[in-house]
Amino acid sequence: MKWLKEVYDLFVDDPKLAILVLVALAIGLVVAKAGARSVAGLIIFLVVAGSLWFSTRND
Amino acid sequence: MNWYVLIAALLASSVEFVEALTIVLAVGTVEGYRPALKGTLFAVLALAILTAVLGIGVLHYVPINILRGIIGVLLLLFGIKWLRKAILRFSGKKALHNESQAFEKEVGKLRQNQGNAFAAQATAFNGVFLEGLEVVVIVLTMGSAAQAYPSAIIGSAIGLVLVLAAGILLRAPLSKVPENVMKFVVGTMLTSFGSFWAGESLGVVWPGQDLSILLLIAGYLAASWLIISTLKKRGVATS
Q: Best residue in A43, A56, A58, A59 to probe B by mutation, most B CBs within 10 Å?
């Protein structure tokens, strides 16, 4: 199981940030499915950038 | 040639190769270069097999749209991890990575076990394998999502040659390499590529298609600059 932890550590440093990034993509998916396909990208960018701000601020 | 992919692979792999070189040099200094190079060779072989198996498997069995979605998410997570670390270092919340210090620390650990060639070989293997794994992730993800394997491989190969040449010439850890700047640039690029490909597979329509990647890079750079200056101001205010 040690290798699984190595793979996890390769992608995740701050679990909260990783969850927020996934939430950003989920919101993007919902917005794109609702028909606003060109706005969804902007929403992904804004939520990811906001998550980065939140994560570094609370470190 | 896909220049975005080549530059990202070159910068990212150079950072990782510099870290691997520090470990190999430490092993070579304490136990001699035979176990250091043996450990390195085994690690390179293991990485080559892993890349071939994963690369062939991924390209042959996973449809490109699903592949771009999975890879986009992985790249986004990988890139934002690097970007976060670089922001924390630039703002003074985390110490800058120092290759000379890392070298001394590694030498100190190895000296406690001096005379054990197998342990030294294992240290070189672990160091090269773990640092190399990140290079494999970058080459595989960027190469397959952008369908630009040659660009990703050439970028990493140039990085390897540059770091190896500098290492052989200096025979010392490459402490003058601006590692945090490189990590910051690569983190921004990977986060942008990740957002683009993950978004595309979720049905997002990016204005200007590939041109949006440049907009995303500019956007993440601006956001990071804003975060760094805010953190610096907060640091001054609280001290």
A: A56
C-alpha–C-alpha distance, residues B12 and B14, integer Å:
5
Sorted by sequence, the CB contacts under 8 Å of residue A13 that are 6+ apart come out as B81, B84, B85
Q: CA–CA separation, B23 vs B11, rounded Å?
A: 19
B175 and B100 in contact (C-beta within 8 Å)? yes
Condensed to tens digits (0 to 9), the pLDDT of residues A18-48 reads 999 999 999 999 999 998 998 999 999 999 9
A12 touches chain B (CB under 8 A): yes
Nearest to B78 among A11, A44, A59 (CB): A11
User: pTM for the complete prediction?
Assistant: 0.80
The answer to whether residues A31 and B202 touch, using CB atoms and an 8 Å cutoff, is: no
Q: ipTM value of the model? A: 0.93
Rounded Cα–Cα distance for residues B149 and B160 (Å): 16
Chain A: closest CA distance from residue B111 (Å): 26
B105: CB partners within 8 A, 6+ apart? none
By Cβ distance, the residue of B94, B205, B231 closest to A37 is B205
A11 to chain B: closest CA residue = B78
